[in-house]
Amino acid sequence: MLFTNAQIATLKSDDSFGLIAQGAIAVDGEKIAWVGPAHDVPQEYSGGETHDLGGRLVTPALIDCHSHIVFGGNRATEFELRLNGASYEELARAGGGIVSTVTATRAASPEALLADALTRVDAMIAEGVSLIEIKSGYGLDTETELKMLRAARQIALERPVDVKTSFLGAHAVPVEFKDVPDRYIDEVCIPTLRAAHAEGLVDAVDGFCEGIAFDTAQISRVFDVAVALDLPVKLHAEQLSNIGGTQLAAKYGALSADHVEYATGSDAQAMATAGTVAVVLPGAFYTLRETQAPPIQAFRDHGVAMAVATDCNPGSSPLASALLAMNMACTLFRMTPLETLLGMTAHAATALGVQDRGRIVVGARADLCVWDAAHPAELAYRIGFNPLHSRIFKGSL
Ligand code: DI6
Ligand code: FE
Q: Which residues pair with 28 in a beta bridge?
């Protein structure tokens, strides 16, 4: 199949959009077989099925590398309480926050959990997302963590989208273990990780390293099990304070450290050495009215790859728009439109340990977006417009 008459942002390297003005892309099965100027299309690709893209912009399909899109209920009441002055941490310590979503998620039937998540997944797909990372972490008991992860796997069967799962048993301390978080880690979190892994439900292991969640010693115990199971790790680190999560993530060679508002220059250095991606989550920064932005310039200076994600969740980031996350990363964090597009494509793939997509190069998965736009900077620029014309998933329109 040949797609022609396209303005292609290949993102073939990190230093530019890699634009090809009058371009064509040949697809063989699920993969990109050739990309280049339309007048150079090799003979072997010019005879088959051809789609004229009308001069539209083509980019790699978007990848949301950090979401909690499977959950029960919502937290609109908590939103009102925060607007009246309560802080996210106060609400968490008072048994609200993540723990209130745990109650709703435990109560939800598998069917309802899936149906609810699909409404948000559909919004993502409509904006060109083809791969979504989905975390557990609102079960905090074996049965519900498995229920969440099965729902996440089911999403990839119900919709034309790929899913990568992350086990986030170390997300919060459930009420039944309120004052004994270490017992929760040993008696529930780690055995549940083993059970979920045995069922093939885990692609990576995540944790929430924070004053209101788990410290580095507790996260280390979970990560040691991940290493033993040969699973990659990633970490919610330095979101509300700096307690050493980024350094810990780097020590374990984590795929990514996420949020990272309170990370320092030396944290950036450690991430660079470990090849750990910095995943910035401007939806949470915005919703919590955070004032400390992540150290974007330090990440640039140290050569840390940056990804951008929605963090779609009912508390700190009720956001199901990848494009708005890109816009926020520009406006709130001063990232460039190129950095945010790389952050929702190539670098998001790296943050998930996926090598074969996120750039329009020969051999990559033919997951593409066709946009009613003339230049790729337009994707991060507008607010509340969806310029997606069509999406190509696994080589099919
Ligand atoms: N940080 C976040 O932003 C989400 N989880 C986390 O560890 C928020 C989860 C929530 O508030 O429900
Ligand atoms: Fe998160």
A: 31
CB 214 within 8 A of CB 238: no
Q: Cβ(368)–Cβ(59) under 8 Å?
A: yes
Render pLDDT for 76-125 as a digit per residue (tens, 0 to 9): 999 999 999 999 999 988 888 999 999 999 999 999 999 999 999 999 99
Report the nearest atom of ligand 1 relative to the CA of 98: 12
Interior/surface letters 289-321, b for 16+ CB within 10 angstroms, e for the rest: ebeebbbbebbeebebbbbbbbbbbbbbbbbbb
- What's the pLDDT score for residue 52? 97
Weakly modelled stretches of the chain, pLDDT under 50: none
Tell me, what's the pLDDT at 345?
99
Residue 134 contacts residue 68 (beta carbons within 8 Å):
yes
Nearest CA to ligand 1 atom 10: 315
Instruction: Give yes or no for residue 316 CB within 6 A of ligand 1.
Output: yes
Q: Report every protein residue that has its C-beta within 5 angstroms of ion ligand 2.
A: 311
With a 6 Å cutoff on the Cβ, whether 284 touches ligand 1 is yes
Dist. CA 26–CA 49, nearest whole Å: 10
Kindly state the tokens that stand for 394. 């696994």
Site of tokens 């020969």 = 362
Which atom of ligand 1 is least distant from the CA of 281?
3
Q: What is the largest CA-CA distance in the chain?
A: 69
Residue 223 Cβ contacting ligand 1 at under 6 Å: no
Which residues are paired to 259 by β-bridges? 237
Q: How far apart are the first and last CA of the chain?
A: 10
- Determine the pLDDT at residue 187: 98
Contacts of 243 (CB under 8 A, 6+ apart): 209, 210, 211, 215, 216
Label the pairing between strands 50-52 and 57-60.
Answer: unpaired
Residue-wise pLDDT for 198-214, tens only, equals: 999 999 999 999 999 99
Q: Is 27 helix (H, G, I), strand (E, B) or coil?
A: strand
235 lines ligand 1 (CB under 6 A): no
Distance CA 352, CA 232 (A): 9
Run of H or E including 146: helix 142-158
The first and second tokens of residue 205, run together, are 């292991």
Length of the chain: 397
pLDDT of residue 326: 98
